[in-house]
Design brief:
Elements lengths: L26 E3 L4 E4 L4 E4 L5 E3 L9 E9 L7 E7 L5 E6 L4 E7 L4 E9 L5 E9 L2 E6 L2 E7 L11 E3 L6
Antiparallel strand pairs: 1-4, 2-3, 4-13, 5-10, 6-7, 6-13, 7-8, 8-9, 10-11, 11-12
Length: 171
Amino acid sequence: RETKCGLIAWYPFNGDLRNNGDSNFDLTSKNSMSYVLGKLGKSAVIRSNSLQANSSPFKNTTTYSVCGWIYLDSLGVTHTIICSRTNIGYGLSILIVTSNQLRIDASIDATSLQWTTDYSFKAGEWTHFAVVNDDGKLSYYINGEFKQTKTVTSTTQHIGNYTTIGASSES
């Protein structure tokens, strides 16, 4: 697959699951979806539901950004934001763990990073997050503020063949 540049996937959740980016990464849902007023326009309500793209926008790239607005009703449980992994666990996952902290898992082989950040999410509050991989320099931002950078294996050739939002690829 050819590596693309530019906006690959953008999901504004304006009452549907269409990708408004440059590629065919529309989402599908296993269950019915609901939408509420979000931080900017509408927001998809993802509870026990997961959304799935038929491919992975992260495959065969060394530079990408993932960002979005998060609003949590409850704390103390794991909330998967996005996951694209192979069946043996290599790939990318961004989640909020039971300590309410942002965690970034990135692995390609035996070399992996499981990074639980210092930031803790709060219930009932909109928070903007961004995770940026700039050719192996992995950084995260909260509400537009740079927080920290770590070095990781930069290639993502082992990312899974699909991407899920709101649940693990293995579930």
